Amino acid sequence: MREEGEARLDRHDRMILEILSTEGRLPITELARRIGLSKSPTQARLRRLEADGVITGYRALIDPIRIGRDHVAFVEVKLSDTREAALSAFNAGVVKIPEVEQCHMLAAEFDYLLKVRCRDMRDYRRVLGEAISSLPHVAHSTTHVAMQAVKEGPLGDVS
Fold this sequence. Notes:
Elements: H1 11-20, H2 28-35, H3 39-51, E1 71-79, H4 84-94, E2 100-105, E3 112-118, H5 121-132, E4 138-145
Antiparallel strand pairs: 1-3, 1-4, 2-3
Helix pairs in contact: 2-3
């Protein structure tokens, strides 16, 4: 059963998503060959997936170690106020912090989990002290430093 707002995807659509999740620059002719359709129907499906918001964009995957941003910390954030206005204020602030790679609101003992990527511990302490801790309604935070990324990457199997 499909959830409300969930796109209707057939096997060709799922194949397109699977392939593009790891090879986003693949030429349309090669994509068409791999899914077993001609170029025109493949292009039409791709445009529909983009228009429907299933494909939200294309971007380069950058190796964070090669650009000196290999320090990863996960930050649990507890807010002092969880009314809608407070949540909205926190959300608006956190999206402006470039070192915050991901931010998730959770149903847990804390309200948000942030993935923060920095150069080193000194840089992280600056981001925590100057940016994260000064966000609206932050009561306290707890940091967990990642020692190794075992798995990171694209969505994977979309079937």
